[in-house]
């Protein structure tokens, strides 16, 4: 709005004997203000609101104001949203007779203007005097759940009443048509949005938003637990992808002492097991004998402790016979350390926070099976070349809090993730990090500071032949591999054994199978990384993996314009190296005889070319580890020439400027020119072939 128009509006108000009545007369005789956006009516109304603040004597009271309030109330149902607050403020509707306001809203409701009635109730804070079920039912039938949330947002008692109502509707014995029948002629009625599934999702959303105890909604919680039970039975008896002990842990924690769920469990057991097995699990889950069918109850009486031990032993023997089909952890069991004290954890830090370290990082948490809240990390796995550390986060956080050092753990994790000299390997890291933030809120900004992070999920779409169908063909009847297990199978030859994936990771002590699974999940990342770096071409990857992996997160792409792959500028050798200080002037010229390098094993062509030009070259063999280049460089004072991911590791193990990343997409000649230019090596005619016999 121009300043000139604002001044004109204010002069107009000053000339009016009754500005409030004048504004109403203008709005009533004009249709312009009913449009969306900043109409002239909106500008005049908001200017009056500001003008009144500067002229406190203007607001009226008594009979005259009541008449104006009655007129403005009649307009509010047709009023655009942006005019509601200014008009309510100008005409002091909060001071109007509450019964009169309730009567007006009730009139709107009876006319079928349910949305308008709810919005006006929220603005005038009338909700405590209204029937929450009556006000919210038509809104839910019109798929206006967000308005329902706003309606109860400031009133805990109304939140509880609404949740109890929704929970009653989710009872399987409740007939939802009893609710919908009176609203058959409702405009914008969406019956497909009004069913138990949609309503139970709304219940969980409200429970989480308002931090209400889920026990308030037993029907919804029981139905969610029943779905969990069905899922667990499917995993155990159809897919056969859960160990008996792991399955039993979840069944027990899901059912607990809930008698309705115990009854459902018995029915599922009879559907999937014989009577003896059903009786054994009924006993294991403490189902009261009086709840069991006659045949199961009879078998229940015959059971002895020894029977249970024998059955579990047989099952475990069967499970162990399958292990040879899966990836095996290549380090000894004594090199897997389960850390529960800060003394142990500090020793772990000393090993982990070393420049040049490459670490496989993974996390485990108890499956939520769709219950309220984000999962909290129960175990943080850090895998090094020769050992794996499993950090018991709940125990360590508890100890730190007791010692008054709550930030101790978050400080270590931030140091690890922000250190560019330490390469962190993960798979689907953004999911892990969001759970880590839910566990330790001090880490909420960590993602912005992360450096040296490699998310192997970024490889999935690039590796040749990597698809669940491919895995399924290879393994026949077994469920097709997916995710990290599929990548492990493709790169290392055997998939991960995921039978412990859905374990109860909060239960202590952890079972031996859980410890081995957790260590394998983190350690396999080291082996994948090493194999892909050594021979990327055989997996259909470009030689320079840096562009595709380092620092990439497994997030959904944001909806913003980005360069297409074809448009992306090619990486030069210097761009591959990541951020570094550019020298203010080029290095002093040197001859090839003074220039000593060690070439990583993916650059043998470059090494041979440089040797032809008279450069002192050492070449790594194909089977050599990349880290051998750093050893040679330190011992013999050589510059490391490498490419792709190994650069991230090697550059931190030698002095500044002693490691150079070459663009592998170029031929040996172009690579050599790049190196000579960067190090200012001047080649003369006599240098060529000077080192050749």
TrEMBL record:
GO MF annotation terms: 3'-5' exonuclease activity; nucleic acid binding
Domain 3'-5' exonuclease: 336-537
Residue ranges of the region described as Disordered: 550-585
SUPFAM superfamilies from the UniProt entry: Ribonuclease H-like
GO biological process: nucleobase-containing compound metabolic process
Record keyword Nuclease present: yes
Compositional bias ranges of the Basic residues kind: 553-563
Coiled coil location: none
InterPro entries linked to this entry: 3'-5'_exonuclease_dom, Exonuclease_MUT-7-like, Mut-7_DEDDy_dom, Mut7-C_RNAse_dom, RNaseH-like_sf, RNaseH_sf
Keywords carried by this UniProt record: Exonuclease, Hydrolase, Nuclease
Highest taxon above the source species: Eukaryota
SMART domains: 35EXOc
Designated name of the protein: MUT7 Exonuclease
Native organism: Alaudala cheleensis
Lineage of origin: Eukaryota, Metazoa, Chordata, Craniata, Vertebrata
